[in-house]
Design goal:
The structure holds two protein chains of two kinds.
Chain A lengths: L1 E4 L5 H10 L4 E7 L2 E8 L2 E7 L2 E2 H9 L5 E5 L13 H15 L10 E4 L2 H4 L4 H10 L4 H7 L4 H13 L3 E4 L7 E8 L6 E5 H11 L3 E6 L4 E9 L5 E5 H6 L7 E8 L1
Parallel strand pairs in A: 9-13, 10-12
Antiparallel strand pairs in A: 1-6, 2-3, 2-6, 3-4, 4-5, 7-8, 9-14, 10-13, 11-12, 11-14
Chain B lengths: L2 H12 L2 H17 L3 H4 L1 H7 L17 H12 L6 H10 L2 H27 L1 E2 L5 E2 L2 H9 L4 H14 L2 H19 L3 H17 L1 H30 L4 H10 L4 E3 L9 E3 L1 H14 L7 H6 L7 H29 L1 H5 L4 H9 L7 H30 L4 H14 L6 H13 L1 H23 L12
Antiparallel strand pairs in B: 1-2, 3-4
Classes of the chains: A alpha+beta, B mainly alpha.
Chain lengths: 261, 459
Amino acid sequence: MLSGNLAEFPLLRLLEALMGAARNGVLRIEHPSFVGRIYLEGGHLVHAEVGSLRGLQALELLAGLRSAPFSFDSEPGSPERSIEGSLEAHQLILHQFEAWGEIALPDDWELSLRATSAHKNAQLSPLEASVLGQAQGKSLAQALMNGRLSPLETAQVLNKLLRLGMLEAYTRLAIGPEPLVVLTLYGGEQGVAAIDENLFSRWQGLLGQAFMLRLRSKTQETTLRPEPRPKMQGRVGLFERDLRQLRLSRGASVEVWPEAK
Amino acid sequence: MDILTLNDYVNRVVYGEWMMLVFILVGLYLSLRSGFVQFRRLGVALSETLGAIRERFLSFGGQITPFQAAMVAMSATIGTGHIIGMVGAVLLGGPGAVLWMWIVYLVGMATKFAEAVLAVHYRREFADGSVLGGPMVYIRYGLGPRMAWLAALFALFTAAAAFGIGNLSQAGAVGAALAQEFNVPPAITGLLVALLVGFLLSGGVRSVARFAQVVVPLKLAFFLLAILPLLLAHLEGLPAALALVVSSAFSFQAAAGGFAGAAVALGLAEILKAGVGRGIFANEAGLGSAAIAHAQAQVDHPVRQGFWGLTEMLLSLTVTTLTALTFIASGHWQRFLGGDRVEAARVLFSEHPLGGVVLGLLLAVFALGTMVSWGFYGEEGAAYLFGEGIRWPYRLTFATFAFMGPLGGLAALTSVADTLNGLMAVPNLIALLALGGLVGRLVQEFFNGMPWQPPEEED
């Protein structure tokens, strides 16, 4: 059984090798978010599937993967046929790979997406606005798989939105939110949340890298820069301007959690 | 010169005009260094304290919350002096004394603020989470090892003075009130007070704080229940009382209304002394006692605890003012001018719908709260001097004195303790003067959003 990682054997080269050797079997690609299967018969692509995507659309998604473990099993036959063996289809597949080459999405499709404040003032086309709305809160993989557009078209729009800073990709962690009480900090600063130095160290230890703080109140959610301070147990210190903007006051209960930068 | 003559001499000095002037000058200096925080940041102070009252049980990780620390301080401060002492000030200085008292309170707010700020800034924290702080600590670590003797002196004065102002005087007041109103034998009162105080002190700062957070609201509620019906009864006299406070601030003459029907003429010096004296000694700002309580608060920045000092002063000012205005509006002050303050207070409160029993209960609650907090202050002073081993012997001695208080007969000891209480101000005011710049810097840093940098701990 042939196995490896797409980071070492890009999918296009792998398929060309399998097709050139006229292999029968299934190429299984295991991404943390999904499992993709590409079936070959006599060196011809006959079927591809990823979640609910079938045929060329499934292949289109898999063509964008830059890293994922794969294995090729020569035994099973294809359960269905979704790709024609025509020259046209072959060219279309090549075009997909070329198009992905011009897209610079993050390699990690587990990253979550969220709109930034920049999108509020920007002129977005209806298509871009629709993709942005659908991607909000989802992982990159989910956004690509479940969009109304094809994965490649979705990727192109997402690429533009990320490049323009209207969308940002971040690591969603399994660290639970910490219930904290708001404390007023005085001064002209903005965008800073002071948390207890022990909590800061704990989160930094868990993440192993610099992080931002996500703060959720009853009405809204925002991202702030963390600042460790002594004797802040159970509190999160916010500057007056942020308090006004977030419509919060001293003593308000909020939830705070870290997000890797 | 025997010890009592010496005591009388020192007592006159520490409670005299020159010392009052020092209190005021230090207060003005601290007002200046802190940017007149008591006026310019009063709104912030109130929102950080009374405005955040729902957070009263929310700790920053320490043994007691900032609210509880403030309650311990307030429990000591708001005592019988706010009623009997205030009545006495009007009898000595006339209604005009109240105006001077107000002015001194406003200056003293900066002093109390600075004490709380420095107490938190320099306090020592131990591995078990306990804290030692107060003027003795900020003198020692703020002024350096060469001034350790001054810190020790403050601790000594505090440990000894607690037996007078915080024990014998208060227990005596409780005993007298309960004997007068309910015919409770002084020995029984002494026993009950000693058991209560001993029990509360044995639980350490947490127990004292838990008691204070109940007793202070109780004190204020009792006070309002006692004073408001009297104020309402004399409401028509209130505008005239206020006018009199202002018009008689510089001189006062009563044709034949004074004690025993004598004509009374009060000069500025007498009015000032009565008003300023009340403005200084009723709220303990400058004595340094409240700083011992504030030091216990765990808080992210010393200035935040300083705001509790300001609020403490405002509440104290409210109590003394309500007492004074009610007393003046009632008109009784004219009859007792220059006379017995206890009798005058008794006559005032006899008009209450519930009768004179109200004053007795009020004094008993006020005195009990003061005793427990002062017991803690004294214990902290003793612990600073002699180490942790002194705590239990001190508590037992304090409880024993609490038993003896209602029995009376310790006038000389009370007088010496009273002098030592006044002497506490000397090292404290020196330290406040020396560390005023630091207070100003901490205020500036706080309002610039900068985090607190505690001083390096040295052995």
